[in-house]
UniProtKB/TrEMBL annotation:
Lineage: Bacteria, Bacillati, Bacillota, Erysipelotrichia, Erysipelotrichales
EC number(s) reported in the record: 2.5.1.17
Biological process (GO), any one: cobalamin biosynthetic process
Top-level division of the source organism's lineage: Bacteria
Family stated for the protein in its record: Belongs to the Cob(I)alamin adenosyltransferase family.
Pathway: Cofactor biosynthesis; adenosylcobalamin biosynthesis; adenosylcobalamin from cob(II)yrinate a,c-diamide: step 2/7
PANTHER family: CORRINOID ADENOSYLTRANSFERASE (PTHR12213), CORRINOID ADENOSYLTRANSFERASE MMAB (PTHR12213:SF0)
Keywords: ATP-binding, Cobalamin biosynthesis, Nucleotide-binding, Transferase
Keyword ATP-binding: yes
Enzyme superclass (EC): transferase
Domain Cobalamin adenosyltransferase-like, chain residue ranges per copy: 25-147
Name the UniProt record assigns to this protein: Corrinoid adenosyltransferase
Length: 166
């Protein structure tokens, strides 16, 4: 049997961005686990599992299903009911739980960019379900952050960009 002590991950030295995607999804799952310490939301453990299913879905068989997308859509709707629609851009601040959720939201968007980059680099058919999965997940993390701040009586702070003034 080969000694693997000095091998953290077998794909680390490949030139493809697939490994970057897999490391990013592993980081996201780990950060969700960290957030679970501060945010008591029963769906977070399910989201960790789904992120790990998405982890291998670029290199191998797509393990995210339409049922998973339906689950995320329902979670989005249920979470939205708790806070209502956010009508403006908010600063990523507030309670410790909300801040962790904002970090998850941001990391998820980085993963979407990696998926797009891989699609372009490898000239492969887009895996639209992964785009939908991570876009929904990012928006769910935003709503969860709003719920956390609401539950902690932290007022959201609106951000108005000087770059995009009308």
């Amino acid at each position: 049997m080969k000694d693997t002590r000095a091998c953290a991950y077998s794909f680390l030295y490949e030139s493809s961005s697939l490994c970057d995607y897999e490391i990013a999804t592993d980081e996201l799952a780990s950060q969700i686990g960290l957030a679970m310490h501060y945010v008591k939301h029963h769906d977070l453990s399910k989201l960790v599992e789904l992120v790990y299913h998405a982890n291998g879905s670029m290199r191998a068989k797509i393990a995210i299903s339409e049922e998973d997308i339906q689950y995320l859509n329902q979670l989005y709707d249920d979470t939205l009911k708790q806070v209502g629609a956010c009508k403006y851009f908010v600063l990523p601040q507030g309670s410790i739980g909300a801040c962790h959720l904002h970090c998850l939201r941001s990391k998820t968007k980085s993963i979407i960019r990696l998926i797009h980059q891989i699609d372009q680099e490898e000239n492969r058919e887009k895996r639209y379900i992964l785009h939908d999965f991570f876009n929904l997940l990012s928006n769910i993390f935003l709503l969860m952050a709003l719920v956390e701040n609401k539950n902690e009586n932290v007022e959201e702070m609106q951000f108005i960009s000087k770059s995009y003034e009308c």
